[in-house]
Amino acid sequence: MATIYSACSGTAFLSPTIFHNKGFSFKAKVPPLHLKKPIHAKSLTSFETDISLPPAVQTFWQWLQKEGVVSNKTPVKPSVVPEGLGLVAVKDVSRNEVVLQVPKRLWINPDAVAASEIGSLCSGLKPWLSVALFLIRERSRDDSVWKHYFGVLPQETDSTIYWSEEELLELQGTQLLNTTLSVKEYLKNEFLRLENEIILSNKKLFPTPITLDDFSWAFGILRSRAFSRLRNENLVIIPLADFINHSARVTTEDHAYEIKGAAGLFSRDYLFSLRSPLSLKAGDQVYIQYDLNKSNAELALDYGFIEPNADRSAYTLTLQISESDPFFDDKLDIAESNGFGETAYFDIFFNRPLPPGLLTYLRLVAVGGTDAFLLESLFRNSIWGHLELPVSRDNEELICRVVREACKSALSGYHTTIEEDNKLKETNLDSRLAIAVGVREGEKKVLQQIDEIFKEKELELDQLAYYQERRLKDLGLCGEAGEIIGGDLEKFF
């Protein structure tokens, strides 16, 4: 997961207003970092560290040794790997065997912020904002506990938030482009607020000028490296653990644990304990799964890579009950009673069924005309169940037509075809263009899939059983072939 020195993982912790490769590149603004004592070849080889690694990585490993995090018993070491940098096994490792443990005193989390000089200033901030500000400040300090860790962090990754305007043009028409631009605007607004409320008025604590680029860097570090599945932690960065790369071969996320144990020669503390989800031979790289549920677009935004697996391709359908709808209040009440709102988002993945609730919500939005009787309070407790099946031919025809038109409109917004994307994939693309091509091709395939699903539904309209026919059958007034048996029907409708 690195372009040249990779790292690890975490799940998204932030959702702005809408809604592999964590590369290490030694472009950091901080000067090279050195230990007070020089690193000797003997001490490096005792931990089987590759002396061909960049000095900053060697220094980082030596710091971990000094802190008691690694020793000659540590089953992994940093090494150059196809992704850039990763951790490889120095001996055979069994599945679920602990490969590293990092004491809580080295974690970067809201607790670390609270205990710092800026803790009181950050007490009212969202946790991620306080940690971002802490990262920026600590990176500029020569006496930071984590200075050797900052020496190996990248200045940027291939995450789309770092792409140039020219590179972003390759995402034309994609939802990823809109999300990226929204995130960048959100970051800008949050930074300006922090600058006005905290940074500029506390120059003694922030003597080094802080820029929007610094803030974007901290956001990218958090987005790509924060673990959020620990038992008592919602947002935590673990030095060394973030060296481990992602692999699609790993199909479980149960690899990180928080335990109570020895954290050094004379102390006990909470430890971040990470187990290998795969059995390894000496020399094999250690991998984990970053997030089983993220789409390729989310992987690109968070980490700066995508998987070749087409099943990671997704498209989000956004549905909304219009305020101009004469039945707006009734529909909103029904939606909210069933876990939805005025706006609903449905993530549709390639080669997967439509998500639960999508057709039901669509039918609710489309209810009108002679079907409006279903919105009466008499049906309030049962209408959602009725909407799970076709309501009427007009209603079903409307949702098919609207969805198909939306798909065609979205497909027209891309500047390439799937065929052109496939040809591009056969060439030697740089990492960012490869991401753009993969994401836009994937979105188009999902849109075609959605269109095909609703096209098939249109062809079945005459064969479907609608609400009134089902109701008549329940009352014994309609035969199996749909014929009316007889009786006074007005009292029923």
From TrEMBL:
Catalysed reactions, as listed in the record = [fructose-bisphosphate aldolase]-L-lysine + 3 S-adenosyl-L-methionine = [fructose-bisphosphate aldolase]-N(6),N(6),N(6)-trimethyl-L-lysine + 3 S-adenosyl-L-homocysteine + 3 H(+)
**Which processes are annotated in GO (biological process)?**
methylation
The principal location of this protein is plastid
Domain SET, first and last residues per copy: 67-291
What InterPro entries does the annotation carry? Answer: Rubisco_LSMT_MeTrfase_plant, Rubisco_LSMT_subst-bd, Rubisco_LSMT_subst-bd_sf, SET_dom, SET_dom_sf, SET_RBCMT, SETD3_SETD6_MTase
Task: List the EC numbers from the record.
Answer: 2.1.1.259
Q: Keywords in alphabetical order, please.
A: Chloroplast, Methyltransferase, Plastid, S-adenosyl-L-methionine, Transferase, Transit peptide
Where does the protein end up? Plastid, Chloroplast
CDD domains (UniProt xref): SET_RBCMT (cd19179)
What do the Gene Ontology cellular component annotations say?
Answer: chloroplast
Name assigned to this protein? [fructose-bisphosphate aldolase]-lysine N-methyltransferase
Q: Which organism is it from?
A: Lupinus angustifolius
